[in-house]
Amino acid sequence: MFRWSRSTAPGEVAAVVGVWLLVTLMLFLSVGQAGAQRLQENLTVPVEAICDVLSVVVAGCYLRLATLFDRGLRGREIQVLMWIQVVASLVVLGLGSAWTMLALALAAALLVAVGRRGLLVVALLCAADVALLLVKSDGTPVAAWLAIPATVFVAGCGLYAVTWLRIVLHELRRTREEMARARVDEERLRISRELHDLLGRTLVAVSLRNEAALRLLDSDLERCRAQLTALRSLVIDGQARLRSLTSGPALISLDDELASARELFDLLGVRVEIAAVEVEDRVVDQLLAAVVRETVTNTLKHGRPTWCRIGIQRQSAAIVATVVNNGVVPSSDDGAHTGLDGIRVRVAALHGEVSAEAVAGGQFRVVVRIPYVGADSPLPQDEEPARAGTTEPLAGRPAVRS
To answer: Which stretches are transmembrane (predicted)?
Structure first.
């Protein structure tokens, strides 16, 4: 059965509904045709009941087959389901001339059998259709009989296309979720490597200095003091590096994070517009990189965007990062913004502020404003209002649109 979730794409829902409607319509046509033929005294009541039961079996097997494909299962069960549909639909066609069930069997064969095997199954179904129609010919014009195999083929291919669309959309959604999780896992792995390298290097240096100091303790106090002083400096430097690593600043620069975001969006087919100014302060640069990383991850994990705009700009004595995307999925899950809560804490440490809200048009906007001081002097306080909201491209790095 189809599993609904807040990340289910509208196209996937439409494809699921389309499959169910088409299968139900074909089932009703088959049952109705059998009933009409019984009223014309071409079928007996037991034969009509057999046709109806077999039609329900074919429809149920097809829906089960579509569900297994949706879950990515490719076992022996789908082969059995396909052949049940083929045999049952041929029996129904032979007893009551209900071609709709054969269209379901054709769609199932196209899903299960591939290559030459698939072409062979499709050819056998079409040949069986024509043969049964010729055997049951009752004076109906030849053109009408030829139209039935063509209708079976078109209906089967249409149902196959809608079912395959559902499978592809489901795989795309699952792939996007896996990529978002992979980015988080990759970040964790990178931090663990950095932590290992940092502590390993620092501890080895401290151990060597300590051994040297112990050897010189009884023979040369001055050199022993120098070793201990150097050891203290190593410990202080290691503490500072460890604090920088674990307190939150990203280990990737803003430029690298923007390039990574653009590459990821391009891979997913999401249109992205990036415009950024140069950030001279290293702490602010790393914090903005963390903001971009978190917002991009949330955009892909909690929405279905088709476009995203990322802007890093100067406004008066502050630097403002803005990330806007569409494809917002309504949700009452308050825990979905835990990452943004961490960003708020880190921005507040620099006396900044964060705004995250849904806006009109199914969009979500995150705005981070940080009081900014350049490498040597603060940003101009008398900036003209006309330029306060514009994006200043980097020198030598124009705004990127893709």
So the answer is: 46-65, 86-112, 118-135, 142-165
